[in-house]
Predict the 3D structure of the following.
Amino acid sequence: MSAVAIEIRDIQVFQRPVNLRLPFKFGAATVTACPQAFVKVMVRIGGVDWEGATAELMVPKWFDKSPQRTQDDNFDQLRLALLTAREQYLSIGGSASAYLLSEKGSEAAIAKMLALGHPRLVGQFGPAFLDKAIADAVLRSQGKSWTEGLSLGLLGDPWSSSLNLKKANSVWLRHTVGLADRLTNDEPLTSVEDGLPNSLIQAIEVHGLKYFKLKVSGQLDADMTRLTAIEHVLSKVPDYRVTLDGNETFQNTETLSLFVSALQKNDATRRLLERTLLIEQPLPRAIALGEKIPAMPFNIPVILDESDDHPDVLEQGLGLGYRGISSKACKGIYRSLQSAALIQKTPQTILSGEDLTCQAGLGVQQDTLLASSLGVQHIERNGHHYVNGFGVAPSHESNDFTKAHADLYASSSAGVHLNVQHGQINIASLHQTGFGHQAWPDWQSLDPISIKEN
């Protein structure tokens, strides 16, 4: 089979409020609530219309960390990015492969967002979002799953045919420890009791965790104290592994080197460093690609994340000493495929799987499937504990997803949540027709997205 020619017929964008059960603190931001966006597309293939869908949380202070913009400003930016992408994609006209339509639509959408003064990572969000839903529709039209469709070249991208795609039935969950997360049960409780783990110790006991993602603040004394306390908890976990996420909080390579040097001089943090798999985006995106990254002890790779706002970012980074990049569906499925293709050809490099607080349902399923198909074996999944399952979604929606993906979800008195067993989640049910889902959102329960352009 070859690339499927499609015509975009309709794109609808919606949102739903999401309240976090625990405050999520990373970098300078503390998030307690934000909207989740949903997209439904209709494409015409050979005279027949097919639908596809996707969802993504509109997280503030990640795409744009400007202190001049509030979290509400960030939400409006991302809404605008979606509406701009919708406008540009619908205006393309004619038939082409999903990838070629993405190339045309995304370039125009990003250019318009840049002209309005928004960062490129913000502008990229809209096209990345629509591309997922379009891919879903294409795969459904041909009766193929994600990995099958990529292997057959149905989307028309230039990388899939050369990738060593994986069809994993399970993946390790890497549990995020945010800057405000309770580590032990002795610390003050900042949320109501809801029957779910509310401390790192409880999460380890309930889920059998082995992999952890630790947020750091770039403030040396605070990070040393925090990481020492975390190591005390993790020391009880056999053969644990961690990643460190800087979230652009280090001022320069000098402060990064001082941080790592300090970790080596303290017994507890040195033990933590010995079990560190990677350090993620320590430097601000404005300077991250401006100088060489220093070598890390124990040969720990430093990788890029927020800098990933342009197709040649990874290649630039590798030339500066970075050794990998993150896969995130919010940055685009084609960006992940491109990164995986380059990493596959480059020894001692890493494609990691990171999370933009992907919510239960379409968001977490498609992002997990994307990363695991590219060989990522442990994936940050923070939405599973910062939000109570499907949140305010109607019960019949969560029930539909639970029935369709009984391996991935579990029901309890606390609701429907990811079924984490011995630190892993089972994903065999994602390998069916379409892009990772056999259930659909209740579209009638969602609110249409609209915003006045500033």
About this structure: The mean pLDDT is 96.
